[in-house]
């Protein structure tokens, strides 16, 4: 508990980035450490080359890559190491390969958790869920012990949302919001299909939302989407296309790729992982980006599941959910269906969820405190303060007193 409190206070006090400072001092920024699990797999292979070339954190950012694999994966991984060496990437200051999690996650700034157990012959979904939950529980523990204090963790390996929950629950000293499950690929797929339908370049499509689980229950929502700045539904007026073609196609796009390619999405998944972390690190404040993050009860979604919502990435490794969007009846039904699946997934791995008692106070709570304070909602401020541990409440009271006296 002591470590938890000290860590959360330190996290609050720590500057979120030294970027602006560093750019003034040198052409290249001091190295940031990035870990990738499953680095010898097909997504990992596509991913590490692009990270090394500077697409993840910027072309002025030196990178140390920690590649993590199973014992069996170490041999193919040595080939990936050779190719990284042969690429002579100027930004890559160091590469290491390991199957030891604490070593691989030591002081990292970002981790991309791609490695996961594949579905074996005759394996049921619940068996796959259990096998992967075990992997992500171990990784959560190791991240808790070894990762950098402000690190961000992107979970790609499936079932991504529930794996993120398991990893976070096993990392009691980390904020839940440090763990994000990837739904950016689903969002990009949805944007691509809308662009095709409207016959416009994909860059003209924005505010497409993926709600819920990275699975066939996800809800790709066009209610708020825009095409060339205009409301998408005023351009795509065919609701039947949206409900009977667009939504199921996005939900099952992974299977469509497997049917055509004979292998699952790899380059596009790597691309989406790069996009997710790049936007979190460098910011993309004008976009609504879908990320599965810990629910805070917004939109009536149950607490304690990793549910995809629209977020705004402000840069410096910080993101905010987009709140208070109007939700129509059809959307509510679709959002509930995917929530139900996530609750069932959570319940099936309960034995690997040690509980929240030692968790630091979440960003969600501090953000709600800030919002209520700025809006002058005194009752809400007092309610949140009464739920906070005393050391936070004392600091908030002091801030309030000094503001009142200035
Ligand atoms: P591959 O089977 O090609 O590669 C997985 C790699 O992970 C292998 O090299 C394996 O040795 C390694 N691995 C397994 N367990 C590990 C562990 N405990 N620690 C470290 N490494 C481990 O799969 P790939 O196509 O790369 O897919 C990886 C994961 O991404 C899968 O779970 C897949 O379902 C998931 N996906 C998630 C997507 C998303 O949008 N969130 C989309 C693409 C992809 O389907």
Automatic annotation (TrEMBL):
InterPro entries noted in UniProt: Lactate/malate_DH_C, Lactate/malate_DH_N, Lactate_DH/Glyco_Ohase_4_C, Malate_DH_AS, Malate_DH_type2, NAD(P)-bd_dom_sf
Classification via Gene3D superfamilies: Lactate dehydrogenase/glycoside hydrolase, family 4, C-terminal, NAD(P)-binding Rossmann-like Domain
EC number: 1.1.1.37
Top EC class for this record: oxidoreductase
One of the record's GO molecular function terms: L-malate dehydrogenase (NAD+) activity
Family: Belongs to the LDH/MDH superfamily. MDH type 2 family.
UniProt-recorded name of the protein: malate dehydrogenase
Species classification: Eukaryota, Rhodophyta, Florideophyceae, Rhodymeniophycidae, Ceramiales
């Amino acid at each position: 508990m002591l470590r938890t409190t000290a860590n959360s206070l330190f996290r609050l006090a720590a500057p979120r980035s030294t970027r602006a400072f560093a750019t003034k001092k040198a052409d290249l920024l001091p190295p940031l450490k990035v870990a990738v699990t499953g680095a010898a797999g097909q997504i990992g292979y596509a991913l590490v080359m692009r990270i090394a070339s500077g697409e993840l954190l910027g072309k002025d950012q030196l990178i140390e890559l920690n590649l993590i694999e199973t014992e069996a994966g170490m041999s193919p991984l040595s080939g990936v190491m050779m190719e990284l060496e042969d690429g002579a990437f100027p930004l890559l200051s160091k590469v290491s390969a390991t199957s030891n999690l604490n070593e691989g996650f030591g002081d990292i700034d970002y981790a991309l958790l791609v490695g996961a157990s594949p579905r074996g012959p005759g394996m049921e979904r619940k068996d796959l869920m259990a096998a992967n939950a075990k992997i992500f529980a171990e990784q959560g523990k190791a991240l808790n012990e070894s990762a950098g204090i402000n690190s961000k963790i992107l979970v790609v390996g499936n079932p991504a949302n529930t794996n993120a929950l398991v990893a976070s629950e096993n990392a009691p000293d980390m904020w839940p919001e440090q763990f994000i499950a990837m739904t950016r690929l689903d969002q990009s797929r949805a944007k691509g299909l809308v662009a095709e339908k409207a016959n416009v370049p994909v860059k003209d499509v924005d505010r497409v939302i993926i709600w819920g689980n990275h699975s066939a229950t996800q809800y790709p929502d066009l209610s708020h989407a825009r095409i060339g700045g205009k409301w998408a539904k005023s351009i795509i007026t065919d609701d039947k296309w949206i409900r009977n073609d667009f939504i199921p196609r996005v939900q099952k796009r992974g299977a469509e790729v497997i049917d055509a390619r004979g292998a699952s999405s790899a380059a596009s998944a790597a691309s989406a992982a790069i996009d997710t972390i790049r936007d979190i690190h460098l910011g993309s404040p004008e976009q609504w980006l879908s990320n599965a993050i810990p629910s805070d009860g917004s939109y009536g979604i149950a607490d304690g599941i990793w549910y995809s919502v629209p977020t705004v990435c402000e840069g410096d490794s910080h993101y905010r959910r987009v709140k208070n969007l109007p939700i129509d009846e059809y959307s509510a039904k679709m959002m509930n269906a995917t929530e139900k699946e996530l609750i069932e997934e959570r319940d099936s791995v309960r034995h690997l969820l040690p509980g929240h008692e030692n968790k630091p106070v979440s960003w969600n709570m501090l953000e709600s405190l800030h919002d209520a304070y700025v809006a002058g909602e005194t009752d809400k401020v007092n309610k949140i303060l009464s739920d906070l541990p005393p050391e936070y409440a004392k600091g908030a009271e002091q801030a309030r007193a000094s503001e009142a006296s200035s």
